Amino acid sequence: MKKGIIKKRFIQSALIVIMIFILFLLACQKVKPKLMDGRTVSQFPEETTSMGYVDFLFDYEGYLDLVDVLQGEFVHRDFDGDGQEDRVLQYVLKDGRKMYAIIFGSGELLEIGPFESAWIGMSILTEDFNADGMKDIVYIGQDMGSDYPESGSKIAVFMSENGTYKNVEWTEKQATEIRFPVSCKKTDHKYEVNISSRCLNFEEFYTIPVDEREVYDSYFVEYGEDTGKEENMAWRADVRDQKLILYEKLFYRLPEELQIELEWSDDRFLVHNVKLISQKKQEERASTSRVIINWENEVQFFDTDTPELTGIVQDINALAWIAPRGGAGINTEGIEQVQEENGYIAESSRYLEQYDEIIDTEGYDTWVRVVQKQVRSETGTTETGHGDYLIYRQGDNGYLAVQSEMDSASWTVWELPGYGEWLDKEVAMFIRMVTGL
């Protein structure tokens, strides 16, 4: 009898232990949710990496706060506003598609993707659109491998709903492609375009500015009844005062955009305001004092109020951002040089104190020097310190030299394979627009 009681109690105790163990496993699963490919977030290493930007985009699997090249952009972030630290994970599915996942401090996760292109980057904005006390999330994925990211970038909005996030469906095909169809038609007046959108209740007759007409003619020779070359898609975003602000590019290589302001109401975004803006990239020229160009054995000087400078300064700024990280065909390591070791740096420095309109010279291919105030590095941002930029041609290749923020005689030079002809074309177009020849 006693043996039977002991055996029964032993079985009961064993069942209790098994139940506790099962509950423990379930608890572990709760704080370690599974990703789309079946892995858990705890399977990724907690080691920092100093790999280059292109290698990071294509090969890295792990937490973004451990990637040195991102310079702290994802360190100590709280996306949902609950006071707990959130992290972002990048990983690759077995079929090669890229995924991002936000791992919240609560243990929940939000997956973003999959993306066919490994070039798609990651940026996050937050705003409480629906006023429920929980931050909503705007994902922006710039196409880092394209010289025209407006055509391939992604945007997604995730609204908070009872403690979780729901993806706002913008189109039937892809929730990360936000499109408001816009029609751009030529009128009977030269350089006048009728820009209209039924879904946005917007129409405006717009005249292409004089300083943009040569570029317009170059790219839109066959620009006809509709956008033709341009497929409008929101490519960048901002948040302000509980509003989502989207920007749609209208013309390739020109700064015109539609700024679309949206408000959340009745479980959807409603159009609040639409206006046509000309994004002249003044922020990229703010530190520039002037530009010096050597073209066909003539050195010429241009002040920053020359409107035609916008495009060329913008392109050089973009290359200066890409070169240290890789991309756009630039996969070389930067070489440290002092001014006397590089003939083009030394040659361009000769003209820093001169302001003559044109100076005859010889012995050097095309070069452009962007003279600017020193920009200091900013901790926790992607801003890297630098002084002047110099881009020049040697043979088929181009070279980009970036001056040190601390020592004006020290430079870092990157080879730009195949960029020689591109530089000549950019400078030739600029000179033609300025001189009218």
Report what the structure shows:
By secondary structure, the chain is of the alpha+beta class. The protein has seven helices and 23 strands. A hairpin with a 2-residue loop joins strand 16 (288-295) and strand 17 (298-303). The protein is globular, with a radius of gyration of 27 Å.
Using the CA coordinates, give the radius of gyration: 27 Å
- Tally of alpha and pi helices: 7
Helix share bin: 10-25%
Oligomer: single chain
- β-strand percent reads 25-35%
Low-confidence spans: 224-230, 281-286
Spatially, the strands of the biggest sheet line up as: 18-23-22-21-20-16-17-19
Q: What brief labels describe this structure?
A:
437 residues; alpha+beta; 8-stranded antiparallel beta sheet; 4-stranded antiparallel beta sheet
Task: Put the structure in a nutshell.
It is built from 7 helices and 23 strands. By secondary structure, the protein is α+β, with helices and mostly antiparallel strands. The model is unreliable at 224-230 and 281-286 (pLDDT under 50).
How is this fold's topology laid out?
Layout: H1 2-31, H2 53-59, E1 62-63, E2 87-92, E3 98-103, E4 109-115, E5 123-127, E6 136-141, E7 154-161, E8 164-167, E9 183-186, E10 192-197, E11 202-207, H3 213-219, E12 234-240, E13 243-249, E14 256-265, E15 268-278, H4 282-285, E16 288-295, E17 298-303, H5 309-322, E18 335-338, H6 343-349, E19 358-360, E20 367-372, E21 389-394, E22 397-403, E23 410-416, H7 420-435
